[in-house]
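Researcher: Sequence recovery benchmark, item below. Answer with residues only.
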């Protein structure tokens, strides 16, 4: 899949269909490989809002790491993990921090979104304001970065 296509799917899933950023990234990956089960998409929901709404690591980054794990890791003892996973994961985290969220100065959802996910009023303001648009852009840029990394590894 081309970078722009994965970005478009991820943005659509988050912006129009209200999936969490972590789910939007993994969903876009499913469109690329077609091998990701619905249960994986469901499981990624708990990573939204920075790990279950705690404002910790950005769900877009977590979703990206999950995709790399799905692509390169193993699920059975007899399978072999592809060592490319570590190089790709390191690059994803480094570039996400240094390029995508450089302005925010953090990979933490609370710093990026500027919202306390436990405060309903702040959540409503987030979704009706401009900050949600920034997060959607971050999801799109993350999808592009994942495509770029996977094209090379």
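Model:
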């Amino acid at each position: 899949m081309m970078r722009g296509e994965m970005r478009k799917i991820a943005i659509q899933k988050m912006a129009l269909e209200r999936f969490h950023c972590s789910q939007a990234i993994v969903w876009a990956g499913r469109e690329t490989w077609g091998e990701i089960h619905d249960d994986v998409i469901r499981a990624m929901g708990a990573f939204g809002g920075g790990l279950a709404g705690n404002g910790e690591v950005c769900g877009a980054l977590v979703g990206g790491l999950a995709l790399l794990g799905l692509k390169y890791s193993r699920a059975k003892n007899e399978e072999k993990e592809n060592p490319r996973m570590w190089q790709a994961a390191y690059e994803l985290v480094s570039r996400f921090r240094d390029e995508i969220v450089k302005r925010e100065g953090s990979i933490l959802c609370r710093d990026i979104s500027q919202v306390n996910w436990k405060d309903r009023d702040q959540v409503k303001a987030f979704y009706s304001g401009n900050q949600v648009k920034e997060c959607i852009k971050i999801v799109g840029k993350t999808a592009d970065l994942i495509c770029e990394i996977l094209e090379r590894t």
